[in-house]
Amino acid sequence: MQRLLASVALVAALSAHATMPALADAHEGPDASTVLATVNGTEITLGHLIAMQQMLPDQYRELPDEVLYNGMLDQLIQQQVLADAAREDMNASRELGLENEARAFLAAALLNDIAAEPIPDEELQAAYDEAIAGVEPGTEYNASHILVETEEEAQEIITELEGGADFAELAAERSVGPSGPNGGQLGWFSQGMMVPSFEEAVMALEVGEISAPVETQFGWHVIVLNDTRTEELPALEDVRADLEEQIRRTRVEAAIAELTEAGTIDTPELDIDPALIRNTELLDE
């Protein structure tokens, strides 16, 4: 189906100004069996178009109905003409490829049905409770810093602070970092958001304590820890989409395991060279 999407787009574009063919007056209330075209004796019905529409990506399904109708009908007619011609020279490759396509289509359809089943609120809540049960909230830090070019400058600033100088004022006057005009404030951050040496220094401080000079690739820092707080765990609504995806994936995996376990599967022990999968000449034998 995916291989035909580009063709569908082209046909739809060419058909944009076509007039939608009228259905036969004899049909009152068309249904899935209503025949829209007969190609070499094969009927193409409204049901075929409906099924095709269900498989299209959203960008195609959003096309105007008339454009989509004409494009899909033309596409199915062309496919039938080509398929009839291909059947006149059916070889092993085509026969086996057709079997693979049918198998893949049916398997995907079943998995889509399983994944699309509604998720009850209680199941979603249970998944959320399980997800956060073992989570230990981390710590967030609020710090300010003064960035200078040398360790000597950093030590001078520490001496001034110990003598009663205001941290924010010194940051505005002396810091070469972008936070200087804002008093050196960095706001709230959690572990992993700062460079390691800076982060280690912050985590070692008590609230209100000023660090020794700390070197990073940006220069030398004097840091004060303003406050700490415990991180809030995300609310259910914040992670709803992820949880729903996880539940659907779990359902699919469980269905595959259950059906595989219940199936009658025989894989004889054969000495097969894996490289044979590339030998297309075997299909000609």
Could you characterize the architecture of this molecule?
This protein is α+β, with helices and mostly antiparallel strands and 285 residues long. It folds into three domains: 2-89, no CATH class; 92-135 and 244-260, no CATH class; 139-230, Chitinase A, domain 3, CATH 3.10.50.40. It has helices spanning 5-14, 46-55, 58-61, 65-87, 92-116, 121-133, 151-162, 167-174, 196-204, 236-262; strands spanning 35-39, 42-45, 139-148, 185-190, 214-216, 219-230. The strands form two sheets. The protein has a four-stranded antiparallel sheet with strand order 4-3-6-5, sandwiched between helices. The chain has a two-stranded antiparallel ribbon with strand order 1-2. A hairpin with a 2-residue loop joins strand 5 (214-216) and strand 6. Helix 5 packs across helix 10 (236-262). The longest helix has 27 residues, at 236-262. The two termini are 29 Å apart. Residues 1-27 have low confidence and may be disordered.
